């Protein structure tokens, strides 16, 4: 009796747009704005804290925010990948916790494009591939708009030729 063959899973080939780093940095900065606003209000209203404590908390918050805005987008860019074949959509996402997803083309139900205001400003889009899966949709984030449009067209064409019923 022979041993079962080892299956290795190759990483998806394509990265998001290089502008993804800007998108993720802007989104991270926007997340920190309410924290700084609350600290500013606390500095004026909460005068019961000593000045050194307020400065220490502000310094720690600033260090964490700078780390989040400057390091995390580059880290995410190194991790995020996507690829489409005739049989499946592959993604790898995350920065601290990483996730790999494979969605068979036969399970594709819809393909959507999404562009928020910052995406539009940077010329980016997210392609969402909804499948018959309890794990939810597969998202390919931060693609250049023209690549997103081509990806949607390619997925639509491949899914249209597939004989599966997407269930």
From TrEMBL:
This is PH domain-containing protein. Keywords: Membrane, Transmembrane, Transmembrane helix. Residues 77-151 form the YdbS-like PH domain. The chain crosses the membrane at residues 23-45, 51-75. It comes from Rhodococcus tibetensis. The lineage of its organism: Bacteria, Bacillati, Actinomycetota, Actinomycetes, Mycobacteriales.
């Amino acid at each position: 009796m022979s041993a079962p063959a080892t299956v290795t899973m190759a990483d998806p080939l394509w990265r998001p747009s290089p502008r993804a780093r800007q998108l993720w940095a802007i989104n991270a900065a926007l997340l920190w704005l309410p924290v700084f606003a609350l600290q500013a209000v606390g500095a004026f209203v909460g005068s019961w804290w000593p000045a050194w404590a307020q400065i220490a908390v502000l310094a720690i918050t600033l260090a964490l925010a700078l780390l989040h805005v400057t390091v995390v987008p580059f880290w995410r860019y190194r991790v995020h990948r996507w690829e489409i074949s005739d049989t499946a959509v592959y993604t790898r996402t995350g920065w601290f916790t990483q996730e790999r997803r494979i969605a068979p083309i036969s399970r594709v139900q819809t393909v959507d494009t999404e562009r928020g205001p910052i995406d539009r400003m940077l010329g980016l889009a997210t392609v969402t591939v909804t499948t018959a899966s309890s794990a939810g949709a597969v998202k390919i984030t931060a693609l250049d708009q023209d690549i997103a449009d081509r990806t949607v067209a390619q997925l639509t064409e491949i899914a249209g030729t597939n004989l599966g019923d997407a269930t």
